[in-house]
Amino acid sequence: MLVKTHGSALFGIEAIPITIEVNIDKGIQFFLVGLPDSAVKESQQRIEAALSNVGYKYPKQKIVINMAPADIRKEGSAYDLPIAIGILAASGQVEHSRLDEFIIMGELSLDGGLKPIKGALPIAIKAMQEGFKGLILPIENAAEAAVVEQVDVYGASSILDVIDFLNGTKQLEATKPNISDDFLNGRNPYEFDFSDVKGQENIKRALEIAAAGGHNVILIGPPGSGKTMLAKRLPSILPPLSLEEALETTKIHSVSGILGQNTSLVSTRPFRSPHHTISDAGLVGGGTYPQPGEISLAHNGVLFLDELPEFKRSVLEVMRQPMEDRVVTISRARISVDFPASFMLIAAMNPCPCGYYNHPDQDCVCAPGLVQKYLNKISGPLMDRIDLHVEVVPVAFKDLTEHRRGEESHLIRERVIQARKIQEQRFANNPSIHANAQMSSKLLNQVCEIDDTGRALLKNAMERLSLSARAYDRILKVSRTIADLEQSEHIKTEHLAEAINYRSLDRETWGT
Question: Which domains does the chain have, with CATH numbers?
Answer without folding.
Answer: 2-177 (3.30.230.10), 194-430 (3.40.50.300)
